[in-house]
Design brief:
Elements (H helix, E strand, L loop, with lengths): L2 H4 L1 H27 L5 H22 L8 H12 L14 H8 L1 H22 L3 H19 L3 H28 L5 H8 L17 H11 L3 H21 L9 E7 L3 H13 L3 E8 L5 H6 L16
Parallel strand pairs: 1-2
Helix pairs in contact: 2-3, 2-7, 3-6, 3-7, 5-6, 6-7, 6-8, 7-8, 11-12
């Protein structure tokens, strides 16, 4: 089954709601441009970001999107991550400190949580998960309506329900994509892309910085015989580990591969050699440079919103 079809039925079930939500986001954006209330700037910027996600979804569904120039791909990637770079983070709504300074402890933490979730929608766009994007759209739209009525506790309840659903979605995704090895998107990029051009790096939907570009350039000219030696050694070590521990490797079929952006020539050969040994190697994760460690720390425990207690209203 092609990775585009894994969530087709669920995406189709959310399609109507998703289209209506996009229109609602545009109304929120336009209304917030005309308003001067305390949340106007936040509502406008968050709505614009979520609308931008819908444009990305449309772009990725266009068969000609792979013809996009390298300069355009790089510019879009840099634009998407610019606000959370360390030098810009102190002005981003993704930074809890910024939101708390503007809106207070209770509301500020919740708004930063919502904004961070809005940013995750880019990843959902690349993995074709409309139902996940729709869930975040719903979170924002309902929170917007609640805050217009000064119902802080309503926002808290909305976030708690979203977080519970998010945990369920995450568990289902892990079971289907990692344990079941059904999501082949990353593997397809590694195995079918033109690895002589860096354009494919931007198909992952992750941050592509100097480290990734330099890694690509290094591997581009790295001798094939050395790649062969490395790949053979890695696969041999994996198989020998089973033998050394007295485990029957014939019971193993899927092999989860975690790699780094730019190392695709090596990763591809590893998967090919695994296949020669009757093992199905699949790329489950492609890592890149951490764009801002503080951003990760700030939202590492966002799941705590699932168990939030009541607090005072506005």
């Amino acid at each position: 089954m092609a990775y585009r079809d894994i969530y087709k039925e669920r995406n189709d079930n959310y399609r109507d709601a998703y289209e209506k939500q996009i229109q609602a986001l545009k109304r929120i954006r336009d209304n917030s441009r005309r308003q001067s209330g305390p949340y106007a700037s936040y509502f406008k910027q968050t709505a614009e970001r979520l609308i931008d996600v819908s444009k990305l979804v449309e772009h990725l569904n266009d068969p000609e999107h792979q013809d996009t120039s390298l300069a355009s791909l790089r510019a879009e990637n840099e634009k998407r991550y610019k606000e959370i770079l360390p030098e810009n983070y102190d002005q981003s709504f993704a930074n809890p400190v910024v939101c708390v300074d503007l809106y207070g402890q209770t509301v500020g933490q919740m708004l930063s949580f919502i904004y961070a979730k809005a940013r995750t929608c880019y990843n959902f766009a690349y993995s074709r998960k409309i139902f996940r994007i729709s869930s975040v759209y719903d979170l924002f739209i309902k929170s917007y309506e609640a805050l217009l009525d000064h119902k802080v506790e309503a926002v808290r309840s909305i976030i708690k329900e979203f977080s519970k659903d998010d945990i369920i979605y995450g568990s289902e995704t892990f079971a289907k994509e990692t344990l079941g090895a059904q999501m082949t998107r990353l593997t397809d990029i590694v195995m079918t892309s033109d690895l002589t051009s860096p354009n494919y790096l931007y198909e992952y939907g992750i941050y592509v910085g100097d480290n990734e570009r330099k890694t690509f350039e290094f591997m581009k000219t790295y001798p094939d015989e050395k790649i062969e030696k490395l790949a053979t050694t890695i696969v041999k070590a994996y198989i020998d580990g089973f033998r050394r521990d007295g485990k029957d490797i014939t019971l193993r079929h899927n092999v989860r591969v975690i790699t780094v952006a730019g190392l695709e020539k090596l990763t591809k050969r590893i998967i090919e050699i695994l296949k020669d040994n009757n093992l199905n190697g699949f790329v489950d994760e492609v890592a890149s440079t951490d764009v801002n460690k503080q951003y990760g720390y700030d939202h590492k425990f966002d799941i705590a919103f699932t168990w939030m207690k009541k607090s005072q209203s506005l």
